[in-house]
Design goal:
Blueprint: H1 3-53, E1 55-60, E2 65-70, E3 76-84, E4 93-101, E5 105-110, E6 115-116, E7 119-129, E8 135-139, E9 144-146, H2 154-157, E10 176-179
Antiparallel strand pairs: 1-2, 2-5, 3-4, 3-7, 5-10, 6-7, 7-8, 8-9
Amino acid sequence: MDWAKHTAVLVALIAAAGLMVTAWGTLKTAQVADEQLAQAREQRESSSREQTERITFWWHADRWETIIANRTLDAAPIWIEVGVRGLNTVEDREWVQLGILPPCQRLEIPTARLMKGAIRLHVSKLLILDRDGKFWERTADGVLHESSIVEAQIPDISTPSPDLAPMKPGEDEWLRYVNIEQCGSK
């Protein structure tokens, strides 16, 4: 019996098994790293969405005003999309920049301020820039989704008609800020 050959074959088999174990370990390490990256991405997305989930708007019929509330601890740049009720084409709507909505504040916009000539406009969407630089849109029915608008489009969408410009909270007597007591909650 040739012990040298058998020993060489045995060593080769053990080395191959060792390589397979190392390869399997490397694969599992890579899978764990991918899962950790995916989890970090989800947490970042969740944090970003969490901020924008706490910025809402609604129509207050009794007072004839639109209210935009920021219940977060972060200020957020916002825009509103206004249009004539019942018209759904892009040409009938325009974005109006409202500047930065302070934390723990709500902005009240009387309907009389949302006029285009004699036509009353309504707010159909809210565009929010979150703390991570991502744009979100909230529709009038409360649905929130990531926006397809990118920062390069902002100068194009922020040129409202002369009837609506400028709409600057703090400088515009029609617009009023009110403190929110439930700040940091939905």
